[in-house]
Amino acid sequence: MTSRLTLWFPVPLAGVLMALSAGCALRRTTPLPPGQQPMERAIAGHIGFLADDLLEGRAAGSTGHEIAARYVATQFRQLGLQPGAASNSWFQTVPLMESLVDADSARMELKHGAETQVLDAPGDFLIGAPFLATNVTVTAPLVFVGFGVRAPDQHHDDLAGVDLRGKIAVVLAKAPPRFPATALAHHSHVRQKSRALAEAGAIGVISVPTPKDLVESPWARQVIQSRFPAMRWLEADGTPADVVPQLKVSGSLSPQGAGKVFAHAPRPLAEVLAAGKRSETQGFPLDVEATLSVRAAHRRLSSPNVIGVLPGSDPRLAGESIVLTAHLDHQGRGTAVDGDAIYNGAYDNAVGIALMLETARVLSAEGNRPRRTVVFAAVTAEEKGLRGSEYLAQHLPPSVGRAVANVNLDMVLVTQPTRRYTVLGIEHSSLRGPVERAAARQQLELIPDPRPERVTFVRSDQYSFIRQGIPAIFPKVADVPGAPVVPGIVTPESFIKDHYHRPSDDLSLPRDAESSMRFVRFMVDVVRQVADADQAPRWNPGDFFGETFGPQR
């Protein structure tokens, strides 16, 4: 961690935090009896401080994120946790490389016979940030390869019989919708696609969002997101991790840009999208050569994961740990929306950090420590592609021991009274039992993922642990698909539509206090059960993730 700050926040904190956040910590929607007020005051204080404009959106590597990290470490210390990083520190330094695209330099040109067409940026296309060079220019034929998915487990191969050597692959976003939810999530991940395309000889990839993708993330929002820098963590030799060197360029197309790219294709774009909706394999040359070029500025920096440890009480089991994660970063300052340029991240993810801290408070104050060690990690750079949790999962400090389970808290949308939850991941391992028992005790309703097409399970920090063979769960407030939109009421679905990754995810949004505290009790129950069980969690026999990534290490 680059240490520019030396302040440690005094005890008690609630009054200081509320003052710093101008008395605002998400609008409570219900009054509380006196016995419940201390936990609610603490939750409100955490959120009010972390999502205050003072921290300027907590971007990874920023001063605001450092202040937030110091705050979390102070909370861990006050709870009596032990420092979890090396050298008896609270901070695990994550070395990072940042790549920021010069938007004015982005250029995409199509050549068909003697005809040349220059596409409009960003109206037609976006080019991804490169990490192995600051100036990139690639010229190559375009070949359409469906979703770009090679999935023997689903008897689907978009790359069979297609010559991609020296070509730029054009692919539909995500994966065939006929796939079961687990396979859909796994094969939609950019990592899976990139490696398969590189193995097939591609030197670049351009993604085409489907109409359903554009409902969740309209092109205008994608343009705003492209203006934030991208990041990778750095290997010990200084090279950026999770980069596929064979793919020299990446990009995406708007519907308008996709229409131009498919103008001379043997099948019109509308037919291609319809075939994709039917999960058909398809592939053909687009009869066009493209030149893509972009410049980017690179910067090396660091940002901390903050780690606190509650040691296990059973000498036989204390070497195993349950790791609770919540990402501390948000997006920082960005393109102004309605005059506001600070992306505060109140629900994404100051709320998750607050609920993790209160879970730690309850577990550390119960008097009888859990048998296994419980680790609390506020991770960085989730918004940059799970970089902090990837680094943690692959560089577990000795104090963590052997991680046997992960519970990830991210964007817990307690915007209104709720008892409905989707706990992503319980179908994969023996973690289902503790979750169902805890839900019954808290009188919660568990429902399956109502929108598996969003592949949420690979989009937050639990996936970093899954990829290391560690069973994980990801609890989310459940929405009701198709429910009428009520003006002024923020539901999970309306949050995604109106506030996700926007400056309006701030302290003006409502929050139900009782639902917040009930969620803490739910998490305490789950963690306590897992930590005290005689047997560590195990993948279910034949489970997709268990078979793909192997047993926990």
Explain what this protein looks like in three dimensions:
- With 553 residues, the protein is an alpha/beta fold.
- 29% of the residues lie in helices and 24% in strands.
- It is built from 16 helices and 23 strands.
- The chain has helices spanning 14-20, 37-50, 63-78, 181-188, 190-199, 211-216, 219-226, 255-261, 269-277, 346-365, 387-394, 432-441, 462-466, 492-498, 513-532, 544-549, and strands at 27-28, 82-83, 91-101, 107-112, 115-118, 125-127, 135-144, 150-151, 156-157, 168-172, 204-208, 230-233, 249-253, 284-310, 320-327, 332-337, 340-343, 373-379, 402-408, 420-424, 445-446, 472-477, 510-511.
- Helix 1 crosses helix 2 and helix 2 (37-50) crosses helix 10 (346-365).
- The two termini are 27 Å apart.
What are the SSEs and their pairings?
Layout: H1 14-20, E1 27-28, H2 37-50, H3 63-78, E2 82-83, E3 91-101, E4 107-112, E5 115-118, E6 125-127, E7 135-144, E8 150-151, E9 156-157, E10 168-172, H4 181-188, H5 190-199, E11 204-208, H6 211-216, H7 219-226, E12 230-233, E13 249-253, H8 255-261, H9 269-277, E14 284-310, E15 320-327, E16 332-337, E17 340-343, H10 346-365, E18 373-379, H11 387-394, E19 402-408, E20 420-424, H12 432-441, E21 445-446, H13 462-466, E22 472-477, H14 492-498, E23 510-511, H15 513-532, H16 544-549
